[in-house]
Design a protein that fits this description.
Blueprint lengths: L5 H10 L1 H10 L12 H11 L4 H12 L9 H5 L3 H6 L4 H16 L12 H8 L7 H11 L11 H10 L8 H8 L6 H14 L7
């Protein structure tokens, strides 16, 4: 079920007239958290889905999960799985390395997933980007859609850049720095602002920017 973000939506419409048009065109906020499974599973999913179509990645992820009891991989179980079995479900050598690095960092305590909800946004990012294959963008998606942090602005995201270019009638796609400048007024509701910008690209109804 979508959460109630009516306060955030009202605040965003008040502080940014351009974003207010986006919000009106898109309609009610349907932002939802991805709460299924464990934090570790959410990160393994992010790694598996990198650079693959949704269908292909979903198939590989299902086969990967099926290797483990209750289709629930754990750091210890993945670390103990040999490469041949992991390659057998469709994982590349590179992604196997990423999954092993993630598992080892969780097991060693370098990535304390049991305490991650108490960390600040920047601390979460700093811990996650230690893992091979997890960059700042992936960490920000984890903050937004897994932890539900309300004020995340993924300035490197091409969808956000393209949506801003369209809505704000810019001649060129904005740089990350310009995204941050434009988005400064969205605090403390940047996550919901970004949800609307992503959805505005889905709409294609020609209403935005008019």
């Amino acid at each position: 079920m979508a959460l109630n973000h009516s306060v955030s939506v009202r605040r965003l419409k008040r502080v940014d007239p351009v974003l207010a048009e986006v919000i009106t065109a898109v309609g009610p906020c349907q932002f939802e958290l991805r709460t299924g499974g464990t934090h570790y599973q959410a990160l393994t999913r992010s790694i598996v889905y990198q650079q693959l179509s949704g269908k292909a990645a979903g198939t590989i992820l299902s086969r990967f999960n099926a290797l483990y009891p209750d289709a629930t991989p754990t750091p210890a179980a993945v670390a103990a799985t040999d490469d041949d079995r992991l390659r057998g479900v469709g994982l590349s050598r590179q992604k196997i390395g990423y999954l092993r690095d993630l598992s080892n960092k969780v097991l060693s305590g370098a990535l304390p997933l049991d305490a991650i909800e108490e960390m600040s946004d920047e601390d979460v990012i700093a811990h996650l980007v230690q893992v091979k294959g997890i960059g700042r963008w992936t960490a920000q998606m984890f903050l937004m859609f897994r932890l539900g942090r309300p004020d995340v602005l993924p300035d490197l995201d091409l969808g956000i850049q393209n949506a801003i270019k369209r809505a704000y009638r810019l001649r060129k796609r904005p740089t990350p720095e310009r995204v941050r400048r434009i988005g400064a007024k969205w605090t403390p509701d940047s996550t919901i602002a970004c949800w609307y910008l992503w959805r505005s690209l889905d709409n294609g109804n020609g209403q935005l920017g008019k």
